[in-house]
Structure formats: structure tokens, C-alpha cells
């Protein structure tokens, strides 16, 4: 979750993951010269490479009010292949009944059974996502239970509840002494001990409450989740959160705290950085104001904000898309409702640009938000009843399905490819056109004006023909970079372009050794890959012939030319597809290639030769 050098931050899990990966890569590089290449036909020797890491980046997809079944399907079809490392899901614990989405934030018990699915469905989702290389982050509501407004009733798992009466878990003594609503955010005591929106405020200072909350989170960890978004963290003393975290079975579980920073308030964001990441609301606020003002300002967006390694960044979330604090996808429609003025049609495009910027600029851990459209702020997900939510449906306009947008997928690939590189080649026109590079790995240009713009950009990219990954997912739009790194391009009004070294024209390089090409099928694949004993290499991709992204169904390649693995398959002429190589061992364990998906298109005569090097 870190980009710019920050040095002093305490190690956190995603950093550790990145560090472990970097170490594995270092070992792989350092290890290979010492290992003599195997003679033809001899068994592959250990490469010293990564073992179980999937090489994915750590971009988060925040799927608001998606059922567990629909998250699982999306992990396999889209989230994993797009290269997201994490999916954040809505609160899974038992809640009050009701059609509004915000029933999710009114816990009744810690049974994992609610409108979004059962415990079994939740567990299956974690497993399915894990198999697709995506880890699950849970929105943990631990500051409060349902409140005085809710009175009494029966929860989504059938548990009866009443004020001060949560059978088996909480009674009156487990709530703070203040029994009134927070009325002043200038008063630390009130903010942390009184009721937020009438919700009963848990006595998080007590050992019993801490154990109960940690018990819930440990239950989730036992189901395989990777970490937590801590709801309403500002309303819980940082020391109580630290104590709860210390009780986790994995104290290094990912932890990002929702502390809505506000200047002049007694409770400050900086109090929480000792415990984990913190959401940087000022980042989202600045995106909104600069995309409405001048995006040239974004060059210094990290100024005065949390250290990059601890900042969770986002364009919007489920609260801010409703309260107008940040940009959001449906802002245009809400604007009409709120003001009776004309719709601002540029907002949707700016929203895409803001996400493009977030995934390109080296600051914080980015979280892409995906929810549903609404006119009523309280409305639950499309079709929600008091006790259930239908599966999300990306064929319907009701769901935003941001993760399926070409620009978002292209930029997640960009994000993964440029990881670890610095900001370079910044250019702006002093107004609403900017461009910047990420070392010699990637380059992005953003036009936040209402007219198309053409210019020659200076990059540090190696010469070549690159796919513009925001313009098209199939490399149908390309940009040629000259030997000096310059290229000329035209950006549409409110448009962007992004180039990176993992997506170059055709995704293929000339075949240096056609003699080793395979045999079965007119589409041939050859990949240079070192493996350990027991592993084989398969090609897996978006089309059914390549296993539909299921490694178990991928096309196994032949090692007779080791370290070249070769094979072939027949695909319809003209098919455009995405693919990657995987290493699969005897136990079925899968190691994915790093970086963005590769793309290719079968020729009009049905032939195609893929010649790649494992990455
Ligand atoms: C959060 N972060 O700190 C969540 O991100 C935010 O979505 C939650 O508010 C809030 N804190 C409590 O977890 C949401 C809705 C509120 C809703 C609340 C509880 O934005 O509108 O309050 O969840 O369901 C609703 C009514 C209130 C009423 C309250 C209690 O809107 O008027 O007082 O329920 O009955
Ligand atoms: Ca509290």
C-alpha cells in the first residue's frame, strides 16, 4: 500500500506483502546467475522465484451492497482478471431488518447472516475470491449497535433485540454512560462516548466489549478474510482500537480506519496512524475541488496529507457519494434533484478522470468504488427487501459496475505495472491539462477541458507502440513513442490516455525461434518460464478455449524445449482475448504471472503466434 518512499512507517500487512514480493523477486534475480541453465531435456531446476504469491497489486475494489454470491462470481469473472488485489465488502454481521442500505450499519449480533447472504455464502465467497487472487476486506461496524431510534425487533438472523438488550452479547453495562446524541464535534468526550445518529455507543474501553468485538473479527479471519475497514473509527478512542487489534489472531491483518478528518476538531486523523492505515478524506475532497477548478494543482496533492504509506485514498465512497462531499458517478442526477438546475453532463467524465488520476499518481492505497444508482439516498440496493438483497447485475444500468469500465480496468493494469516507480516527467498547462510518467514503466495524460487537445508529450518510456489502455481494452488504439520518449497524441474533451510497458501493440514480440513452435492448433503459444520440479505452465485466458480464467482448465504447455513452454489451441479468426500464464503444481497450487493481463487478436486466417517471457 505504499508508493513514495516514506521509510519510517511501521510495517503493515500489505507493505509486508509487497516487501515479500520484492524480496522474492530479488532472490529470483540474484539466484538465477548461480544456477546453470538446464541442459535440453533435463528436469527443470528451481528458479528461486516466487512461490505462492500471485503477483497482484494491492488496489482495492469497494463493492457496496453486493451479495456474497455476486461478489464471488465477480471475483472470478472480473475482479481477479482485472488485477485488483482486494475487494471490500459491506458489513456481514446480523443487522436490523429494513429495505434501506444503512441497516447494514445497525448491528444486532455478530452472526454472519444478513441481507447480503448467509455464513456459508460468505465463506464460499472468500474461498472463490482467494482462488481468483483477490483477498476480502470486511467493513467492520464496531463503534455501536442499532440504537434508540430502532427500538426493538428481530434481526436478519432471527435474533430478538431491544434497547440495552442484545441476548448473549450486550446489556446496559456494555454501552457508554452518555445516553444522548453527539451534539458537538468540538467535544472529544461526546464524539467518542455519546451516540452517533442515536446508535447505542459501545463501551469499547471495557475488556469484555473488546473481547466480543475481537471475537467477531477473529471469526471473520478464520473464514479467510484479509482485513478490515473500521467504520466510524473517529468515534472510538485510538487506544481502544489498538487494544482490539492486539487481540486479533492475526494482529497484522489489514486495517484501514474511517476517520473523517476535519480541521479544528479535537479528534485528529494523526491519532490513528499508529494502529494502521487511515482513509484520507482530504484527498477525495481535493479531487473534487481541483477537477472543478484546476487539476494542475494535483501535482502536489500529497502536501499536508497523511504519509503515503498509511493513506487509504478514494474518489468517493458510499457516504460521500450521497452527501456531496466528493465527486460521484451519479452526481449529475443528484444535482438536478437538489437544485432544479441543468444536469452537469461533464461530471461523469470527470469522475472517470479522477479515478484515472488516483490509479496513476503515486500516493496512498487506492480504492475504486462500485455501487448502484439512486435518487433516494436511503434506497437500498435495487430490489432490496427488508431481509434480502438480490444479486448485483452488471447487465442492468441500476448497478454502476465501475470495475467493468474499460478505463478502470486499463488503469488497474497500469497501477500494477508501475508499482514502485517514482513520479517523473510532470507537465501541466497551469490549468486543466496534466501529464506525468511513472519512470520508464508508464505515462498518463489527462484533459479536464471541454475541447480535444493535441500535443507532443515527453515521457521516459522506451520506444515502441503502446496500447492506450483507457481508450480501449483490445489495443485498438495505439500510440507510438519515439526513441527520445516523445509522442504526439490527441486527447478527447474530458479524456485521458495511459500507456504502460505491459501493454504494447499486439502484446507479442517477433518469434526468435519458430522451430520450437507447437503443434496443436493454429494459435501457438511459447513462453520462456523457469519452474520448480512438479510445476507445469499453462496459458489461461478470457475465452472458453483458454479455460475462461480458470487455471484448472487452462491449456497445458509442453516443456520439451525447457525453459520454453509451448503449446497451441484453435480459436475463431479475429477473436480478441486476454490471457496470462500460470504455473500449476501437483497439488493444484497456482502461481499467476504478475502485471496486467496480456491481450492478443487472432489473425483473419485463424493464426497467431504468441511469444512471451514469464513475468
Ligand atoms: C459510518 N461511518 O462512520 C458509515 O460509513 C455510515 O454510512 C453510517 O451511517 C454511520 N457511520 C454509522 O455506522 C449510515 C447512514 C445513516 C444511518 C446509519 C445507521 O448514513 O443515515 O442512520 O447508517 O443505519 C439511520 C438514520 C438516522 C437514525 C439512525 C439510527 O438515517 O436518522 O438516527 O439510522 O436509527
Ligand atoms: Ca464510541
From TrEMBL:
<keyword id="KW-0479">Metal-binding</keyword>
<protein>
    <recommendedName>
        <fullName>Alpha-amylase</fullName>
        <ecNumber>3.2.1.1</ecNumber>
    </recommendedName>
</protein>
<comment type="similarity">
    <text>Belongs to the glycosyl hydrolase 13 family.</text>
</comment>
<feature type="signal peptide">
    <location>
        <begin position="1"/>
        <end position="41"/>
    </location>
</feature>
<keyword id="KW-0732">Signal</keyword>
<dbReference type="InterPro" id="IPR013783">
    <property type="entry name" value="Ig-like_fold"/>
</dbReference>
<dbReference type="GO" id="GO:0004556">
    <property type="term" value="F:alpha-amylase activity"/>
</dbReference>
<dbReference type="Pfam" id="PF00686">
    <property type="entry name" value="CBM_20"/>
</dbReference>
<dbReference type="Pfam" id="PF02806">
    <property type="entry name" value="Alpha-amylase_C"/>
</dbReference>
<dbReference type="InterPro" id="IPR006046">
    <property type="entry name" value="Alpha_amylase"/>
</dbReference>
<dbReference type="InterPro" id="IPR006047">
    <property type="entry name" value="GH13_cat_dom"/>
</dbReference>
<dbReference type="GO" id="GO:0005975">
    <property type="term" value="P:carbohydrate metabolic process"/>
</dbReference>
<feature type="domain" description="CBM20">
    <location>
        <begin position="511"/>
        <end position="615"/>
    </location>
</feature>
<keyword id="KW-0378">Hydrolase</keyword>
<dbReference type="GO" id="GO:2001070">
    <property type="term" value="F:starch binding"/>
</dbReference>
<keyword id="KW-0106">Calcium</keyword>
<dbReference type="InterPro" id="IPR013780">
    <property type="entry name" value="Glyco_hydro_b"/>
</dbReference>
<dbReference type="InterPro" id="IPR017853">
    <property type="entry name" value="GH"/>
</dbReference>
<keyword id="KW-0326">Glycosidase</keyword>
<feature type="region of interest" description="Disordered">
    <location>
        <begin position="35"/>
        <end position="54"/>
    </location>
</feature>
<dbReference type="InterPro" id="IPR006048">
    <property type="entry name" value="A-amylase/branching_C"/>
</dbReference>
<dbReference type="InterPro" id="IPR031319">
    <property type="entry name" value="A-amylase_C"/>
</dbReference>
<dbReference type="InterPro" id="IPR002044">
    <property type="entry name" value="CBM20"/>
</dbReference>
<dbReference type="GO" id="GO:0046872">
    <property type="term" value="F:metal ion binding"/>
</dbReference>
<keyword id="KW-0119">Carbohydrate metabolism</keyword>
<dbReference type="InterPro" id="IPR013784">
    <property type="entry name" value="Carb-bd-like_fold"/>
</dbReference>
Amino acid at each position: 500500500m505504499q508508493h513514495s518512499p516514506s521509510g519510517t512507517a511501521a510495517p503493515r500487512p500489505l507493505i509486508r506483502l509487497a516487501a515479500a514480493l520484492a524480496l522474492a523477486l530479488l532472490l529470483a534475480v540474484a539466484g538465477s546467475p548461480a544456477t546453470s541453465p538446464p541442459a535440453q531435456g533435463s528436469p527443470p531446476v528451481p528458479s528461486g522465484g516466487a512461490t505462492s504469491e500471485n503477483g497482484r497489486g494491492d488496489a482495492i475494489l469497494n463493492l457496496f451492497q453486493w451479495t456474497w454470491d455476486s461478489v464471488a462470481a465477480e471475483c472470478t469473472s472480473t475482479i481477479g482478471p482485472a488485477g485488483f488485489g482486494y475487494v471490500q465488502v459491506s458489513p456481514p454481521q446480523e443487522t436490523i431488518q429494513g429495505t434501506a442500505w444503512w441497516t447494514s450499519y445497525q448491528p444486532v449480533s455478530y452472526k454472519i447472516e444478513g441481507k447480503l447472504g448467509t455464513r456459508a455464502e460468505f465463506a464460499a465467497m472468500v474461498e472463490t475470491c482467494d482462488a481468483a487472487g483477490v483477498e476480502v476486506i470486511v467493513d467492520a461496524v464496531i463503534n455501536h449497535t442499532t440504537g434508540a431510534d430502532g427500538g426493538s425487533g428481530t434481526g436478519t438472523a432471527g435474533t430478538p433485540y431491544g434497547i440495552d438488550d442484545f441476548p448473549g452479547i450486550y446489556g446496559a453495562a456494555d454501552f457508554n454512560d452518555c445516553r444522548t446524541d453527539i451534539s458537538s464535534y468540538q467535544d472529544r468526550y461526546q464524539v467518542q462516548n455519546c451516540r452517533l445518529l442515536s446508535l447505542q455507543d459501545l463501551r469499547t474501553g471495557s475488556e469484555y466489549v473488546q473481547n466480543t468485538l475481537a471475537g467477531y473479527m477473529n471469526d471473520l479471519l478464520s473464514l479467510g478474510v484479509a482485513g478490515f475497514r473500521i467504520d466510524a473509527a473517529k468515534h472510538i478512542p485510538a487506544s481502544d482500537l489498538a487494544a482490539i487489534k492486539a487481540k486479533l489472531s492475526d494482529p497484522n491483518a489489514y486495517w484501514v480506519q474511517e476517520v473523517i478528518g476535519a480541521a479544528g476538531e479535537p479528534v485528529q486523523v494523526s491519532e490513528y496512524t499508529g494502529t494502521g492505515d487511515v482513509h484520507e478524506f482530504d484527498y477525495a475532497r481535493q479531487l473534487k475541488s481541483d477537477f472543478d477548478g484546476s487539476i494542475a494543482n494535483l501535482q502536489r496533492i500529497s502536501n499536508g496529507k497523511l504519509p503515503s504509506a498509511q493513506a487509504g485514498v478514494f474518489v468517493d465512497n458510499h457516504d460521500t457519494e450521497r452527501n456531496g462531499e466528493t465527486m460521484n458517478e451519479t452526481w449529475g442526477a443528484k444535482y438536478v434533484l437538489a437544485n432544479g438546475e441543468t444536469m452537469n453532463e461533464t461530471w461523469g467524465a470527470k469522475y472517470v478522470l479522477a479515478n484515472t488520476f488516483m490509479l496513476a499518481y503515486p500516493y496512498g492505497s487506492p480504492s475504486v468504488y462500485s455501487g448502484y444508482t439512486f435518487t433516494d439516498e436511503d434506497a437500498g440496493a435495487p430490489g432490496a427487501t427488508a431481509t434480502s438483497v438480490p444479486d448485483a447485475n452488471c447487465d442492468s444500468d441500476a448497478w454502476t459496475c465501475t470495475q467493468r469500465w474499460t478505463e478502470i480496468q486499463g488503469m488497474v493494469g497500469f497501477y500494477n505495472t508501475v508499482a514502485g516507480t517514482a513520479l517523473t516527467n510532470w507537465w501541466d498547462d497551469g490549468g486543466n491539462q496534466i501529464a506525468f510518467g511513472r519512470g520508464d514503466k508508464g505515462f498518463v495524460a489527462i484533459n479536464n477541458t471541454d475541447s480535444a487537445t493535441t500535443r507532443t508529450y515527453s515521457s521516459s518510456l522506451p520506444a515502441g507502440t503502446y496500447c492506450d489502455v483507457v481508450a480501449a481494452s483490445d489495443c485498438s488504439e495505439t500510440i507510438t513513442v519515439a526513441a527520445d520518449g516523445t509522442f504526439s497524441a490527441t486527447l478527447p474533451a474530458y479524456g485521458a490516455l495511459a500507456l504502460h510497458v505491459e501493454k504494447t501493440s499486439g502484446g507479442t514480440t517477433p518469434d526468435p525461434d519458430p522451430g520450437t513452435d507447437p503443434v496443436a492448433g493454429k494459435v501457438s503459444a511459447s513462453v520462456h518460464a523457469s519452474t520448480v520440479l512438479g510445476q507445469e505452465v499453462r496459458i489461461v485466458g478470457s475465452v472458453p478455449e483458454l479455460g475462461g480464467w480458470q487455471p484448472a482448465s487452462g491449456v497445458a504447455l509442453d516443456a520439451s524445449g525447457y525453459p520454453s513452454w509451448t503449446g497451441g489451441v484453435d480459436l475463431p479468426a479475429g477473436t480478441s482475448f486476454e490471457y496470462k500464464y500460470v504455473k500449476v503444481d501437483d497439488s493444484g497450487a497456482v502461481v499467476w504471472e504478475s502485471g496486467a493481463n496480456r491481450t492478443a487478436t487472432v489473425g483473419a486466417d485463424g493464426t497467431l503466434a504468441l511469444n512471451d517471457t514469464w513475468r
